């Protein structure tokens, strides 16, 4: 008699795809060398329908919300084998999705799963307290800081936790932490993203108000509680850091690092202490040496890169060019704010190296865009010459070499200099500026109107462009004096056959005032902040597709 075979359930490809679809989940595989992102599963509910079954990296970035495009780019950035991906991303026409994955095969490709955030449930909740965990807090803080305003990030460290463990045991100490988490959740709404960011650390992010944020946290946590027959009187050491939200908001991981420095300062003052972050906390010599070493290595490892802020033709609405601005992608701290590394770069004598690097990378990127987007017309890229760089040896030779190597058309690479650089030795500056024009660069005078002697020399210097300082533009709708200065500079530029760029265009109202004044170009957060190269190209694509660059109606 033939033995009866036990029945088994075979999970073939069709079954797997059906299961993914039923769960509103999809699998993804990203292969950078092929520029191909492939999907299997429920792509439509996730907002990925237009991309399925495969798409390019740029197409993927394009359908995320603009403020999340840097996060989308982080998914695509190659990393070492075994590196994990965990990103909270908002797609057009869909709810927030969580992307999880890992880099495989020596970093040649990445694969993972994407699902609606609601499907993950409490996956990013701290198991003990029910609050957000550290990773989720950073994601929520990023969302909150996208909205302009003044904020405080506050971290409270429970004092003497080790002693509590010794006296009560781990299980009872966990009850104390759980109770403190409940109190924090009761005292603050979800808008403050209450979280447990360490074994004994709780955090919130709040809009600054009349009541001090640190006091609110202390009031919530320093209340007596009774656990297993013991009366506990918890105290916390509190650190805080103030920041501004909006397009230039600091990286949340960097903010958390700063506030934890403040916590350390508070704990040094004894139980129940408090401290606010200040630059003095960064003055420790070992920290400075480490930062200097990191900065030197950043030049070698290519961590410093140009971000590109669009410059828009006010008459046609089309993107006319970009200004390249230096950004540092630190491997641990994320994006380091420019005000934290540019000063140190200058002190270390690396500004000339930074200037040459920015000019070279920006020119190469512009050459690629001009090749890929012939409809973009006479696209240009502006690069700032640092203070004193106009006087460095071999500047003209370097500019000539970069233009020849990239094949840029004449004038496409625009060099911006400040009035201070010109005024130190006007005669010598005039010679160098003319040499730069002769090798194919165009020239812009930056922050025009903030100095004293520009008018007496302007007609003699070979500039192509004037840039109006952003202060006058930002205040021209409220201050009659600023409005007159802007109009005067525009008229002066017209009389001298110079193009005029207005910085600080924050909204459609300012753009309209500038257009009425016959200003040529506008630049500012009303169009876009400085964007990574991939996002800048997406922005350029959208401008070419729509016929004009998107402009915010209200000030951000």
TrEMBL record:
Annotated ranges, domain EAL: 288-544
Domain of life: Bacteria
Transmembrane stretches, start-end: none
Alphabetized SMART domains for the sequence: EAL, GGDEF
MF terms in GO: cyclic-guanylate-specific phosphodiesterase activity
Start and end residues of each GGDEF domain: 149-279
CDD domains assigned to the protein according to its UniProt record, in alphabetical order: EAL, GGDEF
InterPro entries according to UniProt: Cyclic-di-GMP_PDE-like, EAL_dom, EAL_sf, GGDEF_dom, Nucleotide_cyclase, PdeA-like_PAS, Rev_trsase/Diguanyl_cyclase
Stored Pfam families: EAL (PF00563), GGDEF (PF00990), PAS_PdeA (PF21815)
NCBIfam families: GGDEF (TIGR00254)
Name by which UniProt lists this protein: Bifunctional diguanylate cyclase/phosphodiesterase
Organism: Brevundimonas goettingensis
């Amino acid at each position: 008699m033939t033995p009866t075979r036990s029945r088994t359930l075979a999970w073939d490809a069709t079954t797997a795809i059906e299961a993914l679809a039923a769960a509103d989940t999809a699998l993804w595989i990203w292969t950078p060398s092929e520029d191909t992102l492939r999907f299997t599963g429920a792509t439509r509910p996730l907002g990925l329908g237009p991309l399925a079954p495969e798409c390019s990296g740029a197409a993927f970035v394009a359908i995320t919300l603009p403020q999340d495009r840097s996060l989308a780019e982080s998914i695509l950035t190659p990393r070492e084998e075994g590196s994990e991906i965990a990103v909270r991303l908002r797609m057009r026409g869909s709810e927030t999705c969580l992307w999880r994955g890992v880099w495989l095969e020596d970093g040649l490709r990445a694969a993972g799963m994407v699902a609606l955030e609601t499907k993950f449930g409490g996956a990013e909740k701290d198991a003990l307290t029910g609050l957000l965990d550290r990773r989720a807090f950073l994601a929520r803080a990023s969302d909150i800081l996208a909205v302009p305003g003044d904020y405080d990030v506050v971290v409270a460290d429970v004092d003497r936790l080790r002693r509590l463990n010794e006296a009560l045991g781990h299980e009872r100490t966990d009850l104390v932490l759980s109770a403190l988490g409940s109190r924090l959740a009761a005292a603050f709404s979800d808008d403050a993203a209450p979280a447990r960011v360490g074994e004994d650390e709780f955090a919130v992010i709040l809009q600054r108000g009349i009541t001090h944020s640190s006091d609110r946290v202390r009031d919530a946590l320093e209340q007596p509680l009774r656990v297993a027959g013991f009366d506990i009187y918890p105290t916390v050491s509190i650190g805080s850091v103030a920041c501004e939200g909006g397009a230039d908001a600091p990286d949340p991981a960097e903010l958390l690092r700063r506030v934890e420095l403040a916590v350390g300062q508070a704990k040094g003052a004894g139980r129940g202490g408090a401290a606010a972050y200040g630059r003095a906390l960064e003055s420790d010599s070992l920290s400075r040496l480490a930062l200097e070493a990191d900065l030197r290595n950043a030049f070698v490892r290519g961590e410093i890169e140009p971000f590109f802020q669009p410059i828009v033709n006010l008459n046609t609405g089309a993107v006319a060019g970009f200004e390249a601005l230096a950004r540092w992608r630190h491997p641990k701290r994320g994006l380091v704010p420019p005000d934290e590394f540019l000063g140190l770069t200058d002190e270390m004598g690396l500004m000339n190296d930074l200037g040459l690097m920015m000019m070279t990378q920006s020119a190469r990127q512009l050459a690629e865009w001009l090749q890929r987007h012939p409809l973009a017309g006479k696209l240009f890229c502006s690069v700032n010459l640092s203070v004193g760089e106009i006087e460095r040896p071999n500047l003209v030779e370097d500019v000539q070499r970069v233009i020849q190597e990239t094949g840029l058309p004449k004038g496409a690479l625009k060099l911006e200099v400040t009035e201070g650089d010109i005024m130190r030795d006007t005669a010598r500056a005039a010679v160098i500026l003319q040499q730069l024009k002769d090798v194919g660069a165009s020239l812009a005078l930056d922050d025009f109107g903030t100095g004293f002697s520009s008018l007496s020399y302007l007609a003699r210097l070979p500039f192509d462009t004037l840039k109006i300082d952003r202060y006058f533009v930002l205040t021209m709708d409220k201050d009659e004096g600023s409005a007159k200065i802007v109009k005067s500079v525009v008229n002066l530029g017209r009389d001298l056959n110079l193009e005029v760029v207005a910085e600080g265009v924050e909204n459609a109202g300012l753009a309209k005032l500038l257009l009425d004044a016959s200003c040529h170009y506008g630049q500012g957060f009303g169009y876009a902040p400085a964007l990574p190269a991939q996002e800048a190209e997406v922005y350029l694509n959208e401008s070419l597709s729509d016929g004009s660059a998107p402009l915010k109606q209200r000030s951000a």
